[in-house]
């Protein structure tokens, strides 16, 4: 479904991504692991079209999207939950969710009932401002907003950062349900998950890629993952 091939990304003279290749398939969770500052977020921004790549190609459902804008990629079925959530603090929960209508045809502009089955707390807070929610509730809102766009690829950039353990468990449950196509609204979906925390990633990953200094240094199926080798790239 998604194929990233040998991409290079620069910030001025700084070489942030060095020949990175990655794939994500429907029905599977692909985890990208690594310490802070190794290029994980840069990779997600490149896939989403928020940061241009200098070399390499990004292919989505057989189409080269390397030159596509972010809104074109959203319309093509890529949903993004950025690091830090980036919800609209002054908008209500309902209004935040409805911003997900932007890439959708008019006939699809409704809030799926399954959103509130996944995140029941949001249904009770539709009239509250996003900025009044706790960090964990804001994270649930950010994921729900991405799901409103009916993505076939869901990118989650460190969704557990600064979140209480009970919400982390809920987020893990939702990710697994989405990947396993247990929800009728979305069907088969590929999930690309950025994480620093090995235990959370290990529970969910079908495939993994470990980054260090802008490169993928380990990758494969989760069943072949050697914990000590991975943890070596996660510890400071």
From TrEMBL:
Cross-referenced SUPFAM superfamilies, in alphabetical order? P-loop containing nucleoside triphosphate hydrolases (SSF52540)
Q: Which residues form the ABC transporter domain?
A: 2-236
A Pfam family assignment: ABC_tran
Superkingdom of this protein's organism = Bacteria
Give the transmembrane region(s).
none
One MF term in the entry's GO annotations: branched-chain amino acid transmembrane transporter activity
Q: Does the keyword Transport apply?
A: yes
Record's keyword terms, sorted = Amino-acid transport, ATP-binding, Nucleotide-binding, Transport
Q: Which Gene3D superfamilies match?
A: P-loop containing nucleotide triphosphate hydrolases (3.40.50.300)
Q: Biological process (GO) annotations?
A: L-amino acid transport
InterPro entries membership: AAA+_ATPase (IPR003593), ABC_transporter-like_ATP-bd (IPR003439), ABC_transptr_urea_ATP-bd_UrtE (IPR017780), BCAA_Transport_ATP-bd_LivF (IPR052156), P-loop_NTPase (IPR027417)
Q: What is stated as this protein's family in its record?
A: Belongs to the ABC transporter superfamily.
Name listed for the protein in its UniProt record: ABC transporter ATP-binding protein
